[in-house]
Design goal:
Rossmann fold; 11 helices
Length: 402
């Protein structure tokens, strides 16, 4: 931003601050208190130089706008215009370095209500521009403070749309984000030596260590195999009258069925569904046990594998709230939210049929057991509609529980 334009912008925001229209945090100090400078390019001036280096040798240079550090992970791009707090708190992004393609992030702040979990799950954050200024009646703090609070390494000043194009053409890949090492050649050597985050047991990092019972037990009782459950899903199911008991990801099917649930939800979660050992076998036992089963996200992939489908890594994955999906036999399309880098492949001999397809790349977005319509799943994340009603996928599932 040219100096004259920045001065004009800074004066404008000073006037807003004086009038009480906007609440600002993280202001840099200057001698003249009347004209405190608000750096709209990503935080306080004098930020450290930072690098994002991909495993194919591509280097992006920016400035640190989180805590200093060095992190590695799978680099993905996320295309939502809003929802950065939900992205940061969604367990499905565990093990990843997330690049947000929308150019200005942080301008409506952070609040307690929008968090999908208690923690922050991406290992790093890549931005074009981060604003420490926010204006929203629900906001409680700004994004830079939130990143520091949760010890997130972040870089701004990156052309995230160029990065998105690169990943779209070359595929998602490992990357290293560093504010410490200033030599990109050394970072490139490091990133080639690190294993993929998808080789890690990411589920153990996000699943509860023991079962979590509902505060008020009521009918119908729903057992959630928690691979990284989102609060927005829990809220929708509870508003439909369910009480939820969340069990750890590696819980045996016998232990789940002992709870005598009316149904089982296989939740979303992070990582490669082919990596965890034993989960698919337990899902097969749950299917044999007879209760209605709904899989979402990673849970959808586990259910598909239990019914004979395969899984492959995408090129690139789906991360964002604008994925068009069509259900078989329907003429209208759904615009869905997704966060996954793996997808099912369903052969003819599998024990399930495809019910939903992605209109962009024809990838599988939903399946149903050939033996029972009460066992089904979707790749996308069910969300409330514009009137606040729970998603009809969840409504259908709850009907099976009655």
């Amino acid at each position: 931003m040219p100096a004259r334009q920045r001065l004009k912008t800074n004066c404008y925001y000073n006037n807003l601050a004086k009038s009480g229209q906007v609440k600002f945090l993280s202001l840099t100090k200057m001698d003249n208190p009347r004209y405190k400078r608000y750096n709209l390019l990503g935080g306080e001036e004098g930020m450290e130089k930072a690098f994002l280096v991909l495993e194919d040798g591509t280097v992006f240079e920016g400035r640190s706008c989180g805590v200093a550090g060095e992190v590695t992970g799978e680099v993905v791009f996320q295309t939502d215009v809003v929802g950065y707090q939900e992205v940061l708190t969604t367990p499905s992004y565990r093990g990843q370095i997330v690049a947000l393609t929308y150019p200005l992030i942080g301008n409506y702040g952070i609040n307690a209500q929008d968090a999908e979990s208690d923690g922050v799950h991406p290992r790093g954050l890549v931005l074009k521009e981060m604003s420490p200024l926010y204006s929203n009646f629900r906001a409680e703090k700004n994004l830079p403070d939130f990143l520091r609070e949760h010890q997130v390494t972040a870089v701004c000043g990156i052309d995230t749309r160029a990065l998105a194009v690169h990943l779209r053409e070359r595929g998602e890949m490992r990357g290293i984000l560093s504010t410490r090492e200033k030599d990109p050649a050394k970072l490139q050597k490091k990133v080639k030596e690190i294993p993929s985050a998808y080789e890690e047991d990411l589920l153990s990092q996000v699943t509860p260590q023991k079962a979590i019972s509902p505060k008020e037990k009521k009918d119908p009782l729903l057992a959630v195999v928690d691979f990284g459950m989102r609060r927005s899903l829990s809220d929708q199911l509870e508003s439909l009258g369910c009480s939820l008991v969340r069990v750890p990801a590696y819980t045996r099917a016998e232990e789940v069925l002992k709870l005598k649930p009316k149904g089982v939800l296989l939740s979303p979660g992070p990582g490669n569904p082919g990596k965890p050992k034993g989960i698919v076998e337990e899902v097969k036992k749950l299917i044999a046990g007879g209760p209605p089963i709904l899989g979402i996200g990673l849970g959808h992939q586990f259910l598909g594998m239990a019914l004979g489908a395969g899984v492959k890594k995408m090129h690139p994955g789906h991360h964002g709230g604008n994925q068009p999906v069509r259900e078989s036999g329907q003429k209208h399309s759904l615009i869905t939210a997704q966060s996954h880098s793996f997808v099912l492949e369903v052969p003819e001999e599998a024990g399930c049929r495809v019910t939903h397809l992605n209109l962009n790349d024809q990838s599988v977005e939903g399946i149903e057991s050939k033996k029972s319509p009460r066992v089904f799943s979707v790749q996308f994340i069910p969300q409330r509609d514009e009137n606040g009603k729970p998603d009809r996928v969840l409504q259908r599932f709850v009907e099976y529980l009655k």
